[in-house]
Specification:
The chain is an alpha/beta fold and 288 residues long. It has a domain at 84-278. 38% of the residues lie in helices and 14% in strands. It is built from seven helices and eight strands, in the order ααββαβαβαββαββα. Strands 1, 2, 3, 4, 5, 6, 7 and 8 form an eight-stranded mixed beta sheet that branches. Strand 3 (118-122), helix 4 and strand 4 form a beta-alpha-beta unit. The protein starts with 23 loop residues before the first helix and ends in a 10-residue tail after the last helix.
């Protein structure tokens, strides 16, 4: 998940996206889309928590039912928003992790809609109002950014992978406007090359591609820096015509083929960037 607020790693665009004030027709669309979306999200969250009370003591980390509830919510979200959604390629079947560029809060819906995955996030997110609750309920893995916790985190990753979980990382460390891919941080890949994980781990690069509504700023769906969630959600709900998000799955790579975490990070970053270029998005800025 994203580092936001005053975090020095947060990416900030040279110019903000301008969203005009909402008119009566815009507010009508907000209600017509937002009310059903809220019912689905929070209604299914309640159902998920009830099912998890039964699922946890019987299956532990293995979740045979609740991920399908999450998938239903995420697929339904794009239908209710009126936003196009498609995938290119296929999610990998091998055990391992997924890495993607990070452009919006919509990434969470788009990535969960196609495949059951579990996000890896900084531990602070667990305490965030609303978002932290949703993250915990859907099985997010929370990690402390402390070198002293490396062994503990490795054990958590091993347990999750052994349970068949696909772990999702955003190696840029922040979100952008969706028109670029920032350098992947090699430190995030240290665990992948550990003796415990390297022999069996596969990593699949994924490109998130957003197409703005016709006539809108190309960065319309991007959510970055100190942008507030509320106004961004309202502008998305109010869009007269929606755009589209494409989730492009690239061929996975074997961790065993790499001994250098920098080389692994560079290879995965290059594949994600190729996905943007193939969609006609020229990534000319890769600096934080």
């Amino acid at each position: 998940m994203t580092d936001r607020g005053t975090n020095p790693q947060t990416w900030v665009a040279p110019e903000p996206v301008s969203h005009p004030p909402l008119g009566p027709a815009d507010w009508l669309r907000v209600v017509l889309r937002g009310a059903p979306l809220a019912i689905v999200v929070f209604g299914c969250l309640g159902l998920l928590l009830i099912v998890r009370l039964i699922e946890r003591p019987i299956f532990g980390l293995r979740r045979p039912v609740t991920p399908y509830i999450t998938q239903f919510v995420c697929r339904s979200a794009f239908v209710l928003l009126g936003m196009g959604y498609r995938t290119i390629g296929a999610p990998m079947s091998q055990p391992g992790a997924v890495v993607a560029n990070h452009a919006s809060w919509l990434d969470i819906f788009a990535l969960n809609a196609a495949k059951r995955i579990y996000f890896v996030s900084k531990s602070e997110v667990a305490g965030w109002p609303g978002i932290g609750w949703l993250a915990r309920a859907t099985g997010t893995v929370f990690i402390r950014r402390d070198p002293r916790a490396a062994r503990e985190q490795l054990a958590v990753f091993q347990g999750r992978l052994a349970a068949g979980h696909k772990l999702l990382f955003f190696p840029e460390g922040t979100s952008t406007d969706g028109l670029r891919v920032l350098p992947f941080k090699p430190t995030l890949f240290a665990a992948f090359l550990s003796p415990e994980l390297r022999p069996t781990l596969w990593i699949q690069p994924v490109t998130m591609i957003y197409e703005a509504p016709e006539g809108a700023d190309p960065r319309f769906y991007g959510w970055w820096g100190d942008m507030d969630f509320g106004p961004h959600l309202l502008s998305t709900l109010a869009a007269r015509r929606q755009g589209r998000v494409t989730v492009r799955y690239h061929d996975p790579v074997r961790a065993a083929d790499f001994t250098d975490r920098k080389a692994l990070a560079a290879t995965l970053e290059r594949q994600v960037r190729i996905g943007l270029e193939a969609a006609g998005i020229r990534d000319t800025a890769t600096e934080v």
